[in-house]
Amino acid sequence: MRTLSFILSVVWLAASSIFLSCTGEFKDINTDQSGITDEDMKIDFNNLGIPLDIIQQGIYFNYDFGKGKNWPYQLMQNLNADMFSGYMHDYKPHNGGSSNSDYNLQDGWNGTDWGYTYAYIMPQIKKLEDSTRVAYPSVYAVTKILKVEVMHRISDIYGPVVYTHFANEEEEYCPDTQQEAYAAFFSDLAEAIEILHKYVDNGNRGPDISDFDILLDGDPRSWIRFANSLRMRLAVRIAMADPVKAKEEFMRSFRDRAGVFEQPSECVKVSTRNGYQNPLGEINRVWGEVFMNASMESILVGYGDPRIGVFFEPCMDDVLISDEDGAYTTLELKGRYKGIRQGTCFSHLLYASHSKIHVNQTTEPILMTAAEIWFLRAEAALRGWTVESPEVCYRNGVIASFYQWGIDGADDYLQSDRVGADYVDVFDPANNIEARCKVSPKWEEDASKEVKLEKILTQKWLAVFPEGGEAWAEQRRTGYPRLFPVRFNNSKDGCIDTEVMIRRLNFPADLADTDAPLYEKLVNAFGKPDHAGSRLWWDTGRNF
Length: 544
Description:
This protein is 44% helix and 3% strand. It has helices at 4-22, 46-59, 71-78, 81-84, 107-110, 112-132, 137-158, 178-201, 220-237, 243-255, 279-285, 294-303, 308-311, 370-382, 390-404, 410-413, 449-464, 468-478, 511-514, 516-526; strands at residues 88-89, 267-269, 291-292, 319-322, 328-331, 366-369. A hairpin with a 5-residue loop joins strand 4 and strand 5. The longest helix has 24 residues, at 178-201. The N and C termini lie far apart (47 Å).
């Protein structure tokens, strides 16, 4: 287990070097920070393999850039999206008990998604695009798909991004609004899908990237299905922001002859075969800092969800505590599943007794599952985009998730009327809260569209686990599942509404000082106050 002082010292040194070198002048990003030499690139298709490896490691960030691994992921995702999604919580009282958990947002943590992506991943994407556009069109197409996968995650955190004008000095690295960025995402995916279709139709002539592909199997048909599935994800994301565009893009994937992910075995994961290690596993198993969130406890325990045992571990022991008079009481925790409520500003270490996540260093991080795509199809059918049955797609999503995790009992689960359970904090009753999730797994054909959507999104949230980035985006878009609000809200100037919850991360704070022109352009592109209570473009606050 790392001590808090050690972590913060490493974070400060590393984050300082990133922001001083990379965001001080955005054009400096063209000076690649990865340390890969031209000589390295000349051996055995390394000109393709090395950049692909860096990019794929950089999605669920664990690229070893010489400054240590794992802690970047903790800052980039685990201490924000993984927690804000309702999945996880750290048992340690960071920053004296007040930090991201209670919306006292730590700029040194929350700017890392921006800093690391632009310093290490986007330069490799740009190089690979430029070097493969003519020579290796199929690799160029795969790079385009990866670019969208990388950058939609960044846009879904901050809003506007430097995308279409990255590395374009003539355009002065002008940022895209989120609407413009999404239009570019769809355009890039369409281009990639068209190229790969031609590649397959012409007999797969080109370099074999299977040895370098740590997300799929190197087969261009798999990448088309991934691109189609990704386009579905992004189309549904903008369902309320631009309904016409959303349906149009969804149907392009729905009708594409290569199809989308459907079989439970179809899953995009970061393979550990080439030495990649799951950073969440390191933070969990070695540092001991990843525990169940109270919202997850409420829904999994309330539902009697059999996936709970593969998602989390039960508490290992009972806990003996003393009161002010020195009398001891045994809290019976052993064998139970207990989570930590966000935003309680605790200052003790007692939550180390609670349920850890079931993730190791060798667990392959999940980026997309077939279950997620079935739930996207359920929502599309609910919106009338297709003639599919929302219920059938919903059931297929639950069944696919159960199969993915090796769990039986999906049919019985789908007949359950159980709802979320009230949360009881065993150490501080002031943190107790009534269950917010009032929908059950059982489909109700006579229910309203809103209730049906809540069922779909609640099950989707469970199926996407443990990928907190996607879960947080969808929870913000729809409000589902209904998560517990923070008990204490220490957001700056009260910018975050307690019930509405956090909507985004603000742009890296140091940009205002070190690259004021870029910061001003980003804020102008956003068109709203640059704080965590401002909604993103696709976050409209309504579902129909």
